Amino acid sequence: MPKQVDFLVVGSGIAGLTFANKAAKYGDVLVLTKKRKADSSTNYAQGGIAAVFGEDDAPEYHIRDTIKAGEGLCHEKAVQTMVREGPALVEELHSMGCRFSMNSRGHFDLGQEGGHSRRRIVHAKDFTGQEIERVLLEETKKAGVSISENEIALDLVVQDRECQGIYYLDADTRQIDLIHASATVLATGGAGQVYNHTTNPPIATGDGIAMAYRAGAKVANMEFVQFHPTAVYSIKIDGRSFLVSEAVRGEGGVLKTKNGVTFMKKYHQSGNLAPRDIVARACLEEMHRTRSKYVLLDVSHLQADFIKNRFPTIYETCLSWGLDITREPIPVVPAAHYLCGGIYVNEWAESSIPRLFALGECSCTGVHGANRLASNSLLEALVFAKRAAKRVESVKALHASRPIKTKKTAVVGPNLLFQIKEIMDQYVGLIRSEKGLQSAKRMVDNFRCQFDDGIHIINAESRNVTVVAQLIIESALERKESRGLHFMTDYPKKKKMHCKDTIKEPVLRDAL
Ligand code: FAD
Ligand code: SIN
């Protein structure tokens, strides 16, 4: 492993790999990833990428839909950038060999998802993410990017107020080391694993956000956790709940109570394709009302061949559990799915710490506001990764490598993952209250005290999850209103005075 690189990327999902492939033109790139290369949320993305290709579509419509979903908190300039620069990058993926589904006229077969006023979801059947990950990994070979697996980034090295690189743990040798870089790029994904019920894979423990926050970076909008309404009830695969894509409702899937009664029209004029927060809360309410642990998602009225061809992963996975979705409805529940908040960045993906970039789900670019529009996250990752790569041309000139004066000692931290998840599920879910959040805060603050400032080689994820849980709870407590994904029983309405980002910045005891 080199001791110094031009560009150090943490994470091998769509954000990290897109950046790495593009930045390789400007210098040497090393990607560290904590498990195997393809272990990422990207690899499980189903629905697709939202982008303007339809004949009846226009950037203005996509911008309008995104801003409407974001409930007053979207940064309009960032949304404009994403929507206008996105389609060329989707086409680039296609030209790299990404096998998106095509229609009989040779154009992208555009899917429909909630909150979109037009069909604009480019997809590869229901395994879009796997296809993107495959192509981007192929590209890294051509671009000469090095990827090192089983390397866990632990903490950032910040000196003279600039990011100098990271400390990491080699999971095979159990050695801690340090890499210097001209630019360090966090692309560590989301934090669904802060909850028990999540569609996110086990890697999603918010490491990048926790590392950046500990190092003094600004973090924003952490209260906006998106719950997907339709994860399969009670079955987990490799630590994650299995998602049934929103695209299934886009093609005619219908939500019903356990007694077979449809209910979404009661909650929103767009029915089954209402914005995701509304559908998720409606499902929860119907579960309570009917005293059921799930609601049903029914596609059995659609043509069996169409289901098998359009949604092969969902069809086959359910069938492997004995559920033939062409004949029977799927029991589903809401599950934590996406974090709209993250490391606060500008339009070039630069964080508040010089020479530290953040991309993809661990960042907060301002495009999602209080509620992300379906299939906008893969698009956001592509666009801001490209922009960051453009930016590092100049960062390289700064060249890093000032000698590092301090080195932290490795200590063993407690494993608190299970307790934190229980607290977050109980008090910090889809519906929140001041009292519940205060209880959660007391418990999590107590856990936080069990970690000191050393580098926790063992249970690093537990330490990060504790920091992220704290950030979500504190941000939720500050927002004394209901807006988008954040719903408080004590304050059920939006308030004008809260129409702004929630920004958290740590008071540093000492520089890392
Ligand atoms: P990820 O793809 O999660 O990659 C993070 C990387 O960082 C991983 O390689 C991980 O191992 C690495 N990492 C993390 N911590 C460390 C550490 N400490 N050290 C080293 N490496 C580390 N969005 C859409 O737009 N459309 C969809 O259809 C869609 N479907 C989805 C379906 C599912 C089931 C899920 C879970 C999400 C879906 N999303 C979708 C959201 C979208 O997939 C993610 O937001 C996006 O893929 C995140 O990409 P990323 O590159 O930021 O992070
Ligand atoms: C899905 O396929 O329903 C997920 C889409 C997304 O999260 O954007």
Notable characteristics:
512 residues, FAD/NAD(P)-binding domain, Flavocytochrome C3, Chain A, domain 1, Methane Monooxygenase Hydroxylase, Chain G, domain 1, seven-stranded mixed beta sheet, 14 helices, globular, binds flavin-adenine dinucleotide, binds succinic acid
The CATH topology of the largest domain corresponds to FAD/NAD(P)-binding domain
Number of domains: 3
Strand content: 15-25%
- Give helix % range: 25-40%
How large is the radius of gyration? 22 Å
Query: What is the level 1 CATH name of the largest domain?
Result: Alpha Beta
**What is the β-strand count?**
20
Shape: globular
Uncertain runs are: none
Average pLDDT, to the nearest integer?
94
**Count of helical stretches:** 14
How does the helix and strand content classify structurally?
A: alpha/beta
Task: Give the gist of this structure.
The chain is built from 14 helices and 20 strands. With 512 residues, the protein is an alpha/beta fold.
Overview of this protein structure:
34% of the residues lie in helices and 20% in strands. The protein has three domains: 4-222 and 340-398, FAD/NAD(P)-binding domain (3-Layer(bba) Sandwich), CATH 3.50.50; 231-334, Alpha-Beta Complex (Flavocytochrome C3, Chain A, domain 1); 411-502, Up-down Bundle (Methane Monooxygenase Hydroxylase, Chain G, domain 1), CATH 1.20.58. Strands 1, 2, 5, 6, 7, 8 and 16 form a seven-stranded mixed β-sheet that branches. A five-stranded antiparallel β-sheet has the order 11-10-14-13-12. The protein has a four-stranded mixed β-sheet with strand order 17-15-9-20, with helices on one face. It has 512 residues and is of the alpha/beta class. The protein has 14 helices and 20 strands. Bound molecules: flavin-adenine dinucleotide and succinic acid. Succinic acid (SIN) is lined by residues 46-47, 245-247, 338, 374-375, 377.
